[in-house]
Every structure is written in C-alpha cells, then in structure tokens.
Design brief:
Blueprint lengths: L4 E8 L3 H12 L4 E4 L6 H5 L31 H14 L4 E2 L4 E6 L5 E5 L3 E10 L6 E2 L13 E4 L13 E5 L3 H12 L4 E4 L9 E2 L2 E2 H7 L35 H6 L3 E3 L2 E5 L2 E4 L3 H26 L25 E3 H4 L1 E6 L3 E2 L5 E2 L11 E2 L2 E2 L4 E3 L15 H23 L2
Parallel strand pairs: 1-2, 1-6, 2-3, 4-19, 6-22, 8-17, 9-10, 9-17, 10-13
Antiparallel strand pairs: 4-5, 5-6, 7-18, 11-12, 14-15, 15-16, 20-21
Helix pairs in contact: 1-9
C-alpha cells in the first residue's frame, strides 16, 4: 500500500449528509476529505427510478450555506436533485474525491484511524464521520427467492422505468412511499398492477393552505426526540405514503390506487413458483392509512388553533377521503402465470453494509450504537441516520442541524489534541 497521508477528518460518502458535513468542517477550518465510492449523490443515481421525485418540498431541502429555492413548493426530480448536490459541492469548493471506495476503517497503531481506499492506499485521520447512508444493500423477504425463475424480479434499487419490464402485468410488493410511487409510474404507462400492501400510515399532501410537511416542521413535530415518543417502537415506523410527483405533489392512499385500477392484496407471506400467498389483512392496511392521515390532520388543526393562526380550510382532496375498510376484499392466493404477471418489483426497503467498518460500533443486528451521532469509539461519528437526534434526521432537512452537531464535536476533539501537544 502507498504511504499514509494524514488528515484531521475523513467523511465517508458524498450524499446530502456527507456534503453538509464537509461544508461544516470547511467553515470550521478542519482539514478533511470526502471519500465517495462513485459519483456525488451515488445512491440517488443508482437506486432511484427515472420518474422519482423527492417527497419533501424544495423549501425543506436546503443544505448549510446553500441558496434558498426560487420555487419552494415544488419537488425536485432525481436528476435535478443530483445536479443541486454537484453544484453545492462545486460552489463550496468541498474536498470530494469520487471513485474512492473505502474498503476498511480500523484503529491505527498509535492514534486515530487508518482508512483503506481501494487496495493500495491508506489515509490516516484523527476522526472518521460515516455518511454512507442506510440504504446501500438490498433487502428482500424470503419469498423472493421462491418465485419462479421465469418471472423477472427487481427491487426499488434496480427498477428504472416501465419499459424495462417484460410485457404483461406487474406485482409490486410493499406499499410505503417508494412502492406507491412505482405503482403510479406503472399505471401512468398503462400497465396492469397488483400491489401487495403493508401496514403503513399516510399523510395528506397539503393541509390548510400549505404542504403538510411544512406544517409538521413548524409545529415542532419534526423536532421530536426518540425519548419524547410515548412508544419507542415508533422509530421503526415506515415513512407515510405521500408523493412529490406533480407541481405540488399529491396525496396517495390505497383507495385512490384502487380507483385507478390497482388490484390490492394483503402482505406477501410466501411463494412457490408462480403461486403466491397473501395474508388476509388488506382491510387493516386501509384502516391504518386512514388513521395515520386523521392524526396528521388533527395535529395540524391543533397547532393552528393553539398558535392563533389564520389558516384557510383544506382544499378538497378525494385521495384523502376515508374508506370503509370492510369493503376491501382481496384473494389470499395468486397464480402469477394465470394473471399474466411477468415481473415483480420488491419495494421492501434497503439494508446497510458496514462490513468494512472494523471498529466496535456495529451491533449483531447491524444497528449502530451511538448517542446523537457519536459512538463509544472516540473519534468515530455518524451523520444521516434515521432518528439520529430527532425525527427530522430521517429526511434531507435533518442534515442542517445534525452536521453542525457532529462538526462541533470534531472541532472540540481537534482543539483538545492541540492543547495536549507539547
């Protein structure tokens, strides 16, 4: 390996969290480098379909020192968002090295950490900030491996466009944000779609004259900490069904998809060749979505009343109208061949691969042991984790405050080392 260079900090990953982190370190005068395995925004490039739109409006996607958006209520598509990340790195002169794949991070013999880049380079650093994201490995249920090999199986990360799939009907598995957007993408192309649903809440796109997420940010809902939650299990709740497709996005509900012709099913239990079995829980999933929307509506109404704000009534939204759950019935078995289904898209989330991180911060279940981004290993930090500090940490807007929090700790560690030097 080549001789080790030495830096105060190394940031791993050049997505929105890694770039925000780099901007904070640059402003603090901390010598560092950002190592990215691909191009800037690689995950957004490689794991998003062509019609993808962010689900947060432009007003909520500002990064540290970045400009305010001229169209705050609109939603950026995949390519436009990647272009913004590139421009942010270029304008800020951020020290990003692309195609620099980190293969290992280990404690150095004397002090700090050795970061292996590829197979022949070592970068020595006092602090490591992992910003590689939580969606860098595919995650499939066991049933995926039991589907007939003549049926094309894709994931959210490999699906790009309807024309990529063989002719015929398509089964989408998973009805959170990505599954619903992909379902609508297929519908727009005239495809027949079956959707295996899951228990996911939903949110109306707009309430009382504004985007619902803007209300949630203003009301303090996005600033809730994990310890503030009545039920700690809520941190594992999927992001609600909602879409940024369209000039101001739109509400998505299972009943609105059914009205467009989607055949709704319960959650996928097992597969045997072309025969798939589903749970009898579709009515429960419809009810769960409606209950989630009602809670958001009540939260916003309560905030407006408590704050004495003058807000208009909500506009009519057919997709947000509650349904009678008991009117939804679905078969518990489906033969893909009989239904003409020749492709299955699994929208069942992503996993993470931290096998290259050779310091004791990853639990047996793959979870990261940390407190607000700081691990028990002095000098190893994370940014971009779900619920890292607050609920907002799960979205782009969370990088604004979370990066400042971690940068302050890196700076304090540098200052302590300087004070201790002879």
């Amino acid at each position: 390996m080549s001789p080790a260079s030495s830096l105060e900090a190394v940031v791993i990953g050049a997505g929105h969290a890694g770039l925000a982190m780099s901007k904070r370190l640059t402003d603090a005068g901390i010598e560092h480098i950002v190592l990215e395995r691909g191009e800037i925004g690689e995950t957004w490039r490689a794991q998003r379909w062509d019609s993808f739109r962010l689900n947060t409006p432009n007003a909520m996607n500002r990064l540290p020192g970045g400009p305010e958006h001229a169209r705050p209520e609109e939603f950026l598509g995949r390519d436009a968002w990647i272009a913004e990340l590139e421009a942010y790195a270029r304008t800020g002169s951020l020290p990003v090295r692309t195609h620099a794949n980190v293969t290992a991070v280990a404690a150095a013999r004397k002090d700090g950490f050795d970061v292996a880049v590829g197979s022949d380079e070592i970068v020595h650093t006092r602090s490591v900030i992992v910003a590689s994201g939580i969606a860098n490995a595919k995650k499939l249920p066991p049933a995926a491996t039991e589907i007939d090999r003549h049926v094309e199986v894709l994931t959210t990360g490999t699906y790009r466009r309807p024309s990529q799939l063989p002719p015929g009907a398509v089964l989408v598995v998973g009805s959170a944000q990505s599954g619903c957007q992909i379902t609508e993408d297929l519908l727009d192309a005239g495809r027949e779609v079956y959707l295996a649903t899951s228990k996911v809440g939903r949110a109306p796109r707009r309430l009382r004259g504004r985007d619902t997420l803007v209300w949630l940010a203003e009301s303090g809902w996005m600033a809730q900490r994990p310890e503030d939650l009545p039920d700690p299990a809520a941190i594992r709740t999927p992001q609600p069904q909602i879409s940024g497709v369209g000039p101001r996005g739109h509400t998505v509900s299972l009943q609105s998809l059914a009205r467009r012709g989607v055949t709704l099913l319960g959650h996928l239990e097992s597969a045997d060749g072309t025969r798939l079995r589903f749970a009898d829980d579709l009515a429960e999933h419809v009810r769960s979505g409606d209950e989630g929307s009602a809670k958001f509506r009540q939260h916003v109404d309560d905030y407006i009343a408590r704050s004495g704000l003058d807000a208009p009534a909500s506009e009519p939204d057919p997709a947000d109208e509650p349904a009678d759950p008991e009117s939804f019935h679905a078969p518990t078995e489906l033969d893909l061949a009989d239904c003409g289904v020749r492709a299955v898209v699994f929208s069942t989330g992503f996993g993470t691969d931290y096998s290259w991180l050779r310091v004791p911060v990853v639990g047996p279940d793959g979870s990261i042991a940390h407190r607000e981004g700081r691990t028990a290993v002095d000098g190893v930090y994370f940014v971009g984790l779900l619920w890292m500090r607050v609920r907002r940490s799960a979205i782009i807007a969370g990088a604004m405050d979370d990066s400042a929090h971690v940068a302050a700790q890196v700076a304090a560690r540098r200052d302590t080392a300087r004070a201790a030097s002879p």
